[in-house]
Amino acid sequence: MTQLPERINRIDALARDLWWSWNTDARRVFRSLDYSLWRQTAHNPVRMLHVVPPETLARVLQAVADGMQVQWMLDPSVDMAATIDALFEALSPRPKDDA
Questions:
Q1: Phi and psi for 40 in degrees, rounded to 5?
Q2: Which residue of 6, 60, 70, 81 is most buried, as measured by CB atoms within 10 A?
């Protein structure tokens, strides 16, 4: 698998947790990385992360940062760091209930 930067390495845990399979937003994360690769890997996020080029991950993360910067320029009250942190949190599997 491509060595993921520490900041986003939780996406691998998400890929291995079946939570993504019934969560539309989680599926959208993988699908948006590279739709054609998503289809080629039969919608398998673990396989996809093994073959996705690092440049693709960098492009997606840069697009998020650029979009947040535009939002901040339009409205300086936008908390760019918190929004990007929320994205990384979304890449994490939800804690399992102990119940």
A1: -60, -30
A2: 60
Counted domains in the chain: 1
Whole-model pTM: value is 0.54
Residue 28 to residue 31: CA distance in whole angstroms: 5
Range of the domain at 19: 6-90
Q: What six digits make up the tokens of 87?
A: 């994205």
Residue 46 within any structural domain of the chain: yes
CB 15 within 8 A of CB 63: no
Average pLDDT over residues 24-42: 86
* Mean pLDDT, range 53-62, rounded to an integer: 79
Structure tokens at 54: 């690092």
Q: Which residues contact 15 (CB under 8 A, 6 or more apart)?
A: 30, 45, 46, 48, 49
